[in-house]
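The instructor's notes for this session suggest beginning with a concrete chain rather than abstract definitions. Hand out the sequence below and ask the class to guess, before any prediction is shown, which regions might be ordered.
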Amino acid sequence: MRFPSRRLTAFMLASAFAVPGAALAQRVGDNAVAGAEDAFGASIGNERVGLYSASEVRGFSPIAAGNIRLEGLYVDRPAGFTDRLVASNVVRVGLAAQNYLFPAPTGVVDYRIRPSGDQPVLSVLAGYGPLGGGRLELDGQLPVSKTLSLFGGVASFDDEYGSGADAIYASYALGARWRPAPGVQIMPFWSRVDTWNRESAPIYVASPGVLPPEVARRRYVGPGWADIRSLATNSGIVVQAPLPAELGLSLGLFRSENDTRDNYAHVLTGITADGWATRRISRDPQQTSNATSGEARLSRTFVQGDFSHGLHVSVRGRARDSLYGGGGAQTYGQVRLEDRVDTPPPTFVLGPRTAEEVKQWTGGAAYDLRWRGRGSLMLGLQRTDYRKTVRRPGAAAALTRDSAWLYNAAASWTLTRQLALYGSVTRGLEESGVAPDSAANRTQALPAIMTDQWDAGVRWVLPGDLRLVAGGFDVRKPYFAPDEANVFREMGMVRHRGLEVSMTGSPIEGLNLVAGAVLMRPRVTGAPVAQGRLGPKPVGQTARTLTLSGTWALPVEGLALTFAANHHGRRTADQLNRVSTPAATIWDAGLRYRFDMGKTPALLRLQVTNLTNAFDWRVVSSGTYDVNAPRAAALFLTMDF
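After discussion, reveal the predicted structure:
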């Protein structure tokens, strides 16, 4: 449902939480380009650069695989983090994962909690865009004593998506950093994201061998009553402390709760080349996924001359309970893609839900060797015990157990100050996500899978302050696709093999660059491929991805031009490899103006995304698509009080 005053409501809601004189974290300095160590993926505030993200690394999703870390510690996170809680995240893959304890084959996304220092700071961000809507964010820190500092934030905004669907969000966070003794740091936190009236965006499912015709963007064709309401809550505590016998303790205990109280799926199926389809709208009863997780790690480091030795012992655990399914559907017959739904809501017949419980314990040990100026070696071994119980309506409980040894090894060798080699091998037990909305078993959680990865490459420091990282990788895991009954399940094995290149630095004064490329050969194997029921190319993958981001200081003090280009090649769009989406390049540009308003540091950012208004189908699953965002502008003003 749309409200004429949504933007005003969003601003009023956020303003209600702003307490005069409160000291809340510094954001004028947020700059993802300047802060990126490589081009493999980094986010700072609401800026992101690099080849990879939390949802895609080397063609796979670290989030779906469960490879999330908070302050370097394992967390099972069914509910997404809010920017009020986390200040940044970095994708740990390739060279960036060399000295990372217990890495994962699909890559690790490491989030950092917002800082809380010794000075009171209130950061305010007010903005408009990128697709209409308003935004107001307040973040900051308040020192209470020499050992205790509070941090927190509140925000409200109205987002719109490429389909024209929009939603109202409010997010909040509160935490503390307590340093009761030298070397001891205790960080408790709580955060929540509320989503109201998120309109269910249509998902486009094409007829066999058909690429849907382009559709109008920013034109919502769904019903006003198909609104999603959800809550996402994360809380926990992180402890870092020295112990006797020169031991160090890192401890994290977390609770993550995702509660979707109203959920709809709007699917346009059987799309023809001339734009006809069958409309189906599904409604689900309340869907929940809650997890308690954490990690305790003991470490000891001792130095002998040029050698530093680290010994680490870790125990990780999680318990996740989920309720899903039970939805009912209503079919509306043949429609054109641009036709809107204007009928009243039907009576959906809802059924019982499926209950799922996952418990997993992992214990491991790692050895870390660093040879000053020469290289490093990391060895790790873990034993994991995984148990999943699924209770489907009208059926006996199904129990799945899996125990496995997991390992990782990584080494680097510094040949000269400018040149170094690296390589690693990793085996992990990862989650495989949930079945997509277009599948007959939509929302069903998929089983855990064994995955393997190796990579190797070179780091080269070039003249002009440029840093080049280039390497090869090979990732293998089970492949999931819909079968003849449209049930999304394991159908073979997939292998992503390729080359990745990162270049960062400042070749000339005032110019900062982050550039990267991935050239990949993804392939599916197994009996369904040999029988012709699956094509050899996995759905949604491309042979090339290129990225370039940068800032260029202009002659006016504090003023800089920002620019970005992201390109992907043709993407395989269906599991029989009959259809591909065209290659596309998305261009962005903008300005950053850093100045002072009296004694208050300020940053004004103007950004225009998708400058050429390119249309690009996003491949969700086999024959299933979503639209990208059209050209849009955003204006943000940030101030640190």
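Then share the key points. Confidence is low (pLDDT under 50) at residues 1-25. DSSP finds four helices and 35 strands in the chain.
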